[in-house]
Amino acid sequence: QLQLVESGGGLVQPGGALRLSCAASGYNAKYYGIGWFRQAPGQEREGPLCVISSDGSAACADSVKGRFTISRDSTKNTADLFMNRLKPEDTAVYYCAAVGDYRVVGGFIETHPFYWGQGTQVTVSS
User: Fold this and answer.
1) Rounded to whole angstroms, how far apart are CA atoms 5 and 21?
2) What's the CA angle centered on 34, arms 86 and 113, to 5 degrees?
3) Each residue of 42-100: pLDDT tens digit?
4) What's the half-sphere exposure (Cβ side, CA atoms, 13 Å) at 115?
5) Separation between Cα atoms, residue 6 and residue 10, nearest integer Å
6) Dist CA 29 CA 34 (whole Å)
7) So what's the pLDDT on residue 27?
8) Measured between alpha carbons, how far is 69 from 49 in angstroms, rounded to an integer?
9) Does residue 32 surpass a pLDDT of 90?
10) Which residue in 34, 44, 32 sits closest to 5, CA to CA?
């Protein structure tokens, strides 16, 4: 069983930047990849937006590539999502998840989430 806790959400103006952090704890946490997903009001959960494996290989979906990046601190079992040039349509609850192996297909990332965090709200508005 893993526990994941997101932090760093908040209100940001369009064009601004935000860093979200995901802290994973529990048995074998360091062996899982971490993926970031989001769910906007009235929409289905989207993602993963970005994912980083236990060995540090990372990818972001085409929908956010160039604006979002992901990094991982394996010593702390944390994974950060760096979001730049934010748009109002980025407004959503952002979730991190412990995931398995991933692959990139047609600009999308495919993986299987095993454990979820509780989410953190990101609002992009002036």
Assistant:
1) 8
2) 105
3) 999 999 999 999 999 999 999 999 999 999 998 899 999 999 999 999 999 999 999 99
4) 20
5) 12
6) 10
7) 85
8) 9
9) yes
10) 34
Separation CA 70–CA 48 (nearest Å): 11
- The three-state secondary structure class of 114 is strand
Q: Are 33 and 54 in contact (CB under 8 A)?
A: yes
What is the CA 105 to chain-centroid distance, rounded?
A: 18
Bond prior to 14 in cis (omega within 30° of 0) = no
The tokens 């979002």 sit on which residue?
A: 68
Distance CA 101, CA 112 (A): 7
- Amino acid, single-letter form, for residue 100: G
What residues contact residue 92 under an 8 Å CB cut-off, 6+ apart?
A: 38, 39, 40, 41, 43, 46, 121, 122
Residue 54, classified by CB atoms within 10 Å of its CB into exposed (0-12), middle (13-18) or buried (19+), is: middle
Sign of CA dihedral 108, 26, 44, 69: negative
